[in-house]
Amino acid sequence: MEIDSPNASSGSISGTREENGFHLNRVSVGDYGEGLPYAPIDWPKPGDNWSWRVGKRIASSGHFLDRYLYPPKHLQDPHRRKVGLASKQSVEQFIQAKFPNADVNAFFASFSWKIPSKQLRLFGMTDNKEENPPTVETEETSASDSLMADLTCKAGNKTCTSLGAVGSASGVMLCDICCSEPGFCRDCCCILCCKTVSSSYGGYSYIRCQALLNGYACGHVAHLNCGLRAYMAGTVGGTIGLDAEYYCRRCDSRLDLVSHVRKLLKTCESVDSRDDIEMILSVGISILRDSRRASAKQLLDQISLAMSKLRKGADLEDVWKKEEIVEVTEENGALELENHKDPPANRFLQPLLSSKFDHRVETLVLEDEIDQILMALKKSQESEYRLAEEALSVQKNCIQDLYQQLDHERSTLSQRAPSPDADSVLDSFLSKVDHLKQEIRKFKDMKEVAKRFGRTPKHILKDHFKLETEN
């Protein structure tokens, strides 16, 4: 980061600036690019163009405090993630390490290190020192006009969180994949469907990846429903192995979703619309369903109970009341209810004995659960089928190749005249025969999956299908 004096000022801040002979256009928070005027080109060799990116903090002089320089790809460490050089000192150290004889001063003179910001107008600052200071009314009007003219979201979203986001100390990582698309905004566009997310009800419907990579936040967002449909959110088996988590497609990080669902449940308590509450709770149930974590199971029970009360027409106040445990006792031939907080037992008897109980509603809930169970079973069976098909196909090709090699070598042996290397050729042939026997035995073991994965010995699933199973 380049730190300047709070009162430093030079050049124009309303439109463009001049530095090192370059005509500088102002840029927005989080912008990035390649080459002049903010990064060198053809250095150290023709075609070696450097890249640049700015953060969010802006100096009073009008340029970004956080600006980053990225060397050409062939000068970067291939074993590390792309990391920007955040200060002149780090750039000098990089150049001296890579090119000890290079002229550092000439390098910095080939581009402009300072990058002017568009957002400065928000504070009513002006580049004309001879003008009178603006009045309060003029300043507010100027700031409003500047906001409409300069602060724009790439997706055209007027409620984008990036608008006016000045002063944040944390930068976001450079992204030249999805963020290079003309209509995609990292701050408000879903990385999976590219549509804008909604901030209604605290933004319950999307998740923002806050994973830190080499000091920079990922910052990409995704609709939770998109993540659930793409098997990148919730509980997912197989190689991805999620348990009430979100998997970010951009940075490969995993985020815990249990805390997000807790916030979601808290949000529902202040919502007046029953339809909206049910919609929000449905998202929470989808996220937590099938989780093996105790905290997720407990939270799922809490949400499911609230959903059940809501569907039965309970008052909103009663929906969020903590359920007291009810025991049924029979005394003098009459049913009496006794409330207990511990231990947790018979908690489903209260709705059953309520006058609002409707068996038709319970039947619909039961049918919905059965549909979900059958759908999950179908998905798991399809996944097992694809895994078995791939592994068996690989094994078939292996055996087929060995058959062809043995056929060729057998033909060669039958036509070869006695020679000193005959023994070695025969040894090679017999070795392949042994290898073929092993692969056929392996194939015989793999045929056990015809009984379904659940009945296949665990060592076969682990050794031949690379599938870890729990005890």
From TrEMBL:
It comes from the Eukaryota. GO terms for molecular function: zinc ion binding. Keywords: Metal-binding, Nucleus, Zinc, Zinc-finger. It is found in: Nucleus. Residues 359-464 form the DUF7615 domain. The keyword Cell membrane does not apply. The keyword Cytoplasm does not apply. Residues 156-284 form the Oberon-like PHD finger domain. GO terms for cellular component: nucleus. Residues 27-117 form the DUF7081 domain. This is Oberon PHD finger domain-containing protein. The gene is LOC113740073.
